[in-house]
Amino acid sequence: MSQTVRTRIAPSPTGDPHVGTAYIALFNMCFARQHQGKFVLRIEDTDQARSTPESEKQILDALRWLGLDWDEGPDVGGEYGPYRQSERKSDYKAYAERLVEQGDAYYCFRTPEELDLIREERKAAGLNPGIKGDLELAASEVSNKLAAGVPYVIRMKVPDDGVCVIDDLLRGRIEIDWSQVDCQILLKSDGMPTYHLANVVDDHLMKITHVIRGEEWINSAPKHQLLYQYFDWDMPQLCHMPLLRNPDKSKLSKRKNPTSVTYYERMGFMPEAVVNYLGRMGWSMPDESEKFSLDSMIKNFDLSRVSLGGPIFDVEKLSWLNGLWIREDLSDEQFVQRVQEWSFNHESFSPLVEHVKGRVETFSDIAPLTSFMFAGMLPLTEESFAGSKLDSDILKRVLQFTLWRLEAQRHWTKENIFADVKAISKVMDIKMGDFMQPIFVSIAGTPNSWSVMDSMALLGPDMTRARLRFALNVLGGFSKKEAKRVDKEFNAMQAKIAD
Fold first, then answer.
1. Phi, psi of 64 (to 5 degrees)
2. Which of 194, 190, 189, 196 is nearest to 115 (CA)?
3. What's the confidence (pLDDT) of residue 398?
4. For range 10-22, the mean pLDDT
5. Buried/exposed code over 308-337 (b: 16+ C-beta within 10 A; e: otherwise)
6. Would you say residue 3 has pLDDT above 90?
7. 165, β-bridge pairs
8. For residue 254, is pLDDT > 80?
9. How many CA atoms lie within 13 A of 277 on its CB side?
10. Cys-Cys link to 187, which of 154, 317, 363, 409 (CB 3.0-4.6 A)?
11. Residue 390: Cβ within 10 Å count
């Protein structure tokens, strides 16, 4: 390759650091390193309502824990910065307006109600319900609306007919009918770009040569290719990786599997084992060995060895592999050191002192009192919840609604956790003490612990949610039919809380 290979990972800081992000980051880094290129980390925080500094820090910490280091990024700098999209806002607007001037995009003043009507009409006509058609206004009308301050977005123009051909490094020729591609919004009414515009502009300005991403972006590739053509820029080579799957072959999701990298760190997995396992997701070493280091993967990396079958992310298999790493790669001294780094060290134990010191008479009392803070999933059974005053269906709803509410919590603090729990308790008309009992059991294994709000704050969002999910499964969860009804109840409850 004549030009320097440059790859990137571009996570959105809107939640926990997902193993899918780490998976894609790993393959981008290996490809760049194998070709003596550069690996870039870019934060795509165009969704300002959901993006948080806490989430960004978690993502960076998680990738660093795994050893997936980047050459350029928001924390290390680089010649193509800034590396947060929110800091490049004015650039995107200029590029969007350039497309309008060229006649490749237009100002759209349609209201949400008008757009819904367009979708319904297209659907009724048997067409793709995306936004298509002649929505452009006359120049004079556009000028009047802009002068009057009428809210608008900028949409790209997309052909109605024909076929878009995408060349993929893994999949070869991909054909997508233009009739299936909607006129994508490029610039939102708040002046922030959508992913599609920012993605293309940033990849061009940062001289990205290869875009290795998940296959869920295949349907967006025509929009991106079209934007490169409109701007008269060279398009990076595309490579769409297979999606990670649950053991039941469904798309990997936090409702069926722990998906946060932080969860695996808190559980005591070795980062080397997690990287090893992610490397086996759709790829294999030339000698088909199951256990290999990151350095070995980089040395032997070849995209042609990627299989397009959906790789299965199986926590039991990961645990087995982690066991191999512990037994085969750690000396006794290293084992002690890793355990100390993971658990009873100053950083992890200091926050517990205020809860423990007044409850113990000897140091030997500490272990049984704090064991749940250093455990994974607790040994719960249905009998563990026998002390609850709530009947089975209500008890499961308490856990499910709390889990769903906390999954949306972006700022993980004791105060915010308490506010969420109290809001649900109030809407469900359950006394706070009765409401909290099953949550205590789910998180601490007993209703007789210190403040469960403090415990959840200290455990963090990943472990807290995992334990609530596990407790719900212990109680049998909900059938598919029940789940739909419970989901509707939760949405109704959310509306009441919002009011």
1. -70, -40
2. 189
3. 96
4. 92
5. eebbebebeebeebbeebbeeebeeeeeee
6. no
7. 175
8. no
9. 27
10. 154
11. 17
SS3 content of the chain, % helix, strand, coil (to 5): 55, 10, 35
Rounded CA-CA distance 47/312 in Å is: 30
Q: Are 9 and 43 in contact (CB under 8 A)?
A: no
Report CA dihedral (206, 210, 213, 217) to the nearest 10 degrees.
Answer: 90
Amino acid at 104: D
Give the number of other Cβ atoms within 10 Å of residue 234's Cβ. 11
- Tokens representing residue 162 in the block: 């024909």
Count the helices and strands in the chain (H runs, E runs). 20, 9
CB 359 within 8 A of CB 369: yes
Cis peptide before 82, with omega less than 30 degrees from 0? yes
Tell me the two tokens of residue 395.
């008890």
90 phi, psi to nearest 5 deg: -65, -30
Question: What is the rounded radius of gyration, in angstroms, for the C-alpha atoms of the chain?
Answer: 25
The CA distance from 111 to 346, in Å, is: 56
Which residue is it, tokens 């890793």?
Answer: 338
155 φ/ψ angles, rounded to the nearest 5 degrees: -110, 145
Q: Is the pTM of this model over 0.85?
A: yes
Q: What percent of the chain has pLDDT over 70?
A: 99
Active site members: 254
Taking only the tens place, the pLDDT of each residue in 347-399 is 888 999 999 999 999 999 999 999 999 998 999 999 999 999 999 999 999 99
Residue 163's H or E segment, with its range, is strand 163-168
Each residue of 61-118: pLDDT tens digit?
999 999 999 999 999 999 999 999 989 888 899 999 999 999 999 999 998 888 888 8
Q: What is the mean pLDDT of the chain?
A: 93
What DSSP state is assigned to residue 5? P
Reduced to 3 states, what is the DSSP secondary structure of residue 38? strand
pLDDT at residue 114, rounded to an integer: 86
Query: Cα–Cα distances in Å, from 395 out to 10, 38, 476?
Result: 40, 52, 11
Distances (CA, A) of 453 to 54, 136, 188, 297, 444: 19, 53, 38, 42, 11
Region 136-154: what's the mean pLDDT?
Answer: 93
In the block, tokens 């919840």 appear at 385
Report the candidate in 428, 441, 432, 429 with the shortest Cα–Cα distance to residue 472: 441
CA–CA separation, 413 vs 247, rounded Å? 33
C-alpha 56/C-alpha 33 separation (Å) is 24
How many Cβ atoms sit within 10 Å of the Cβ of residue 81?
A: 16
- Distance from C-alpha of 88 to C-alpha of 200, rounded to nearest angstrom: 13
What's the distance, Cα to Cα, between the start and end of the chain in Å? 59
Whether the CB-CB separation of 419 and 406 falls below 8 Å is answered with no
Residue 462 has pLDDT above 80, yes or no: yes
Residue whose pair of structure tokens reads 């123009």 in the numeric block? 157
